[in-house]
Amino acid sequence: xxxxxxIIDMQNGFARxxxxxxxxxxxxxxxxxxxxxYVIATQFINPLQGPYRRILNWEKxxxxxxxxxxxxxxxxEKILSMEFWHQTVLSDYFLRTR
Length: 98
Known about the structure:
The protein is of the alpha/beta class. It has helices at residues 18-32, 51-54, 82-87, 90-96, and strands at 4-8, 38-43, 78-81. It has a 3-stranded parallel β-sheet with strand order 1-2-3. Helix 1 (18-32) links the parallel strand 1 and strand 2.
């Protein structure tokens, strides 16, 4: 059985407050254990024609440095953008990479 660490949206724009900042620190500690066969991180990007802008008028996480993954997490084997996340069933991805 493979051990997978899936990191969701640990980006500068999200992980700068209280609990989310602590979560980023805990993820870094997990990464240091080298206990995972795969480390995958998603990266949320708020595109110009995306629903968050159109419906909610939310203008954050559109460019660097807000969309950048936390500096300590960047050297990962595979980074999945939200575009990939929505177009692919994640379980199919893991089955293909066994």
